[in-house]
């Protein structure tokens, strides 16, 4: 009789837990990140008798999540990839709007300036045409300056988002570490069972972290996860978060770098997520584009100045430079121990590429020159630079040379009167109708002076805009591809972990019927037991 009652009571307890789990699934059908749970039932140890074993009922052996680790990792990876592409594509499109606008972009300003030059060549005695050329020269410098300012503002926005992202990453690291502790404690208290809802919460925190930056994880025996960022740098070790920090670039204090708590810079190792998109955009689009705009500004200014100073103005005087330009920017590393300084000048326009360079002193008065970033060794003369380093340099002292980075912001018209435009040639008979030098100015636009003397300024501008457009289109395609991959990964995960209300409703009825049947067995056992008691009382 006790066997019958025990089996019935075990069924009541087991199916009560099954009903509770099913109701928990139904309640969380729309909870983001929730994994469907299922009750696993097993037969209790049977009672052995001389006639054989008699079953003793059922018990709950576990409550497990419907979980596919591979599907979850795919969702995390594609979430990180999509966030990276969305961030990169959105920012690159903003740069394209600034640089390539058909009305206010670089190409339109170039066209208006050279059209004005052609008008002076057509009528070199016209003060009106000369005024327009001066005005368009000023408009060209204003446009370069405005573009550089807008790109600078975008740079500031990126820097602010970098700082904000680091704060968010640290917040996720703390939350994951706290969840690791809670999971380890709960697992120990349950004798190795896992707290499913806490595991879901940690998965959601990891998903949110991957939206910011790509991370990898390693499981521990107590149920906790170690989280790594970048090139294997630890972010969470069990219950201990290892916070990131914002440091300053050794050459540019206003340029933030991602560092570990001990000061190690990991900026170049970070990938994925919106933070990876920000860093990739800054490295691959923003900085190179500012330099390319500066290169185009330097090219037109230096070539026009060369022609202008080789002619004569309306009064017969030697031409003065049409544009004034800032010197080459040289920045000293804050980590230098010596007292040396570096000066640099542009010696050949055809050698310039728009790259920045790092000078590394050898401590004996010499130095080596490397592309920055990239670290490729180059010869100064080959890249159009003249470099001198003063005494007092310690071995390893470094300096950053940015040949054209400041040109767009610092370019100005040097002439103050239309008569100063040197439209006439320096040799031959002088006359107010001499347009030989103005014709040479007009030819500057199509002269092959860039990139080893193979590309004209006009083509250089067009190529710059075309390459930017290609980068934007490529990033947009990448964004769509990542979106499709994420949708597929989420669908796979949902097929495993998602709550199906029809299935849960069926389970609810199944467990309810089993519970009611067990209750009937218990009632029957109780009736039989009472009958026996009444029989003995007679």
Provide the descriptors you would attach to this structure in a database record:
2 domains; 10 helices; elongated; four-stranded antiparallel sheet; alpha+beta; single chain; 17% strand; 52% helix; 538 residues; five-stranded antiparallel sheet
Largest sheet: 5 strands, antiparallel
Shape category: elongated
Count structural domains: 2
Terminus-to-terminus distance: 20 Å
Radius of gyration: 37 Å
Q: How many strand segments?
A: 23
Mean pLDDT: 89
Low-confidence runs = none
Give the percentage of residues in beta strands. 15-25%
Explain this structure to me?
The chain has 538 residues and is α+β, with helices and mostly antiparallel strands. The protein folds into 2 domains: 2-66 and 499-537, no CATH class; 80-326 and 406-497, no CATH class. Helices cover 52% and strands 17% of the residues. It contains 10 helices and 23 strands. The chain has helices spanning 2-27, 69-100, 106-122, 127-189, 196-212, 273-308, 407-410, 436-443, 457-497, 501-537, and strands spanning 37-43, 47-49, 52-54, 58-65, 215-219, 225-229, 233-237, 240-241, 244-248, 256-260, 311-312, 323-324, 329-332, 342-346, 356-361, 367-372, 377-378, 385-389, 398-402, 412-413, 424-425, 448-450, 455-456. The strands form 9 sheets. The chain has a 5-stranded antiparallel β-sheet, with no helix packed on it. A hairpin with a 5-residue loop joins strand 5 and strand 6. Helix 4 packs antiparallel against helix 5 (196-212) and helix 6 (273-308) packs antiparallel against helix 8. The longest helix is centred in the N-terminal third of the chain and has 63 residues, at 127-189. The protein is elongated, with a radius of gyration of 37 Å. The two termini are 20 Å apart. 37% of the residues are buried. The model has no long low-confidence stretch (mean pLDDT 89).
């Amino acid at each position: 009789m006790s066997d019958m009652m025990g089996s019935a009571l075990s069924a009541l307890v087991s199916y009560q837990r099954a009903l509770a789990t099913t109701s928990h699934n139904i309640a969380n059908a729309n909870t983001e990140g929730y994994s469907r749970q299922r009750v696993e039932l097993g037969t209790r140890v049977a009672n052995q008798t001389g006639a054989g074993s008699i079953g003793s009922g059922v018990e709950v052996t576990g409550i497990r999540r419907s979980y596919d680790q591979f599907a979850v990792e795919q969702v995390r990876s594609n979430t990180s990839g999509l966030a990276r592409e969305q961030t990169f594509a959105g920012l690159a499109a903003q740069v394209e709007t600034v640089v390539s606008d058909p009305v206010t972009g670089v190409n339109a300003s170039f066209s208006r300036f050279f059209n004005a030059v052609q008008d002076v060549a057509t009528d070199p005695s016209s003060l009106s045409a000369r005024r327009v050329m001066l005005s368009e020269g000023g408009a060209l410098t204003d446009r370069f300056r405005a573009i550089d300012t807008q790109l600078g503002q975008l740079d500031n926005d990126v820097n602010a988002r970098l700082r904000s992202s680091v704060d968010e990453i640290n917040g996720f690291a703390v939350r994951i570490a706290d969840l690791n502790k809670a999971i380890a404690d709960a697992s120990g208290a349950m004798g190795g069972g896992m707290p499913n809802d806490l595991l879901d919460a940690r998965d959601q925190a990891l998903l949110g972290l991957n939206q910011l930056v790509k991370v990898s994880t390693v499981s521990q025996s107590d149920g906790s996860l170690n989280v790594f960022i970048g090139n294997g740098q630890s972010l969470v070790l069990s219950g201990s978060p290892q916070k990131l920090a914002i440091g300053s670039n050794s050459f540019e204090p206003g340029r933030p770098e991602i560092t570990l708590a001990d000061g190690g810079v990991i900026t170049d190792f970070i990938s994925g997520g919106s933070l990876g998109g920000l860093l990739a955009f800054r490295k691959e689009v923003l900085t190179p584009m500012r330099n390319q705009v500066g290169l185009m500004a330097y090219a037109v200014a230096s070539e026009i100045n060369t022609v202008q100073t080789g002619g004569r103005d309306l009064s017969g005087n030697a031409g003065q430079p049409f544009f004034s330009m800032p010197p080459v920017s040289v920045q000293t590393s804050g980590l230098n121990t010596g007292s040396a300084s570096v000066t640099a000048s542009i010696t050949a326009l055809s050698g310039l590429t728009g790259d920045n360079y790092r000078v590394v002193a050898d401590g004996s008065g010499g130095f080596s020159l490397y592309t920055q970033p990239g670290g490729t060794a180059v010869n100064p003369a080959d890249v159009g630079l003249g470099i001198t380093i003063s005494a007092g340099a310690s071995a390893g002292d470094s300096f950053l040379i940015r040949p054209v980075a400041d040109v767009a912001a610092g370019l100005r018209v040097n002439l103050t009167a239309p008569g100063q435009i040197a439209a006439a040639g320096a040799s031959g008979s002088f006359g107010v109708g001499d347009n030989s030098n103005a014709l040479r100015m007009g030819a500057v636009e199509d002269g092959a002076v860039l990139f080893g003397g193979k590309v004209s300024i006009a083509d250089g501008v067009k190529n710059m805009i075309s390459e930017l457009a290609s980068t934007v289109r490529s990033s947009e395609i990448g964004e769509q591809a990542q979106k499709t991959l994420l949708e597929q990964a989420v669908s796979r995960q949902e097929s495993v972990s998602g709550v199906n209300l029809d299935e849960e409703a069926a389970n609810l009825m199944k467990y309810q019927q089993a519970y009611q049947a067990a209750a009937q067995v218990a009632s029957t056992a109780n009736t039989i037991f009472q009958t026996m008691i009444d029989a003995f009382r007679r």
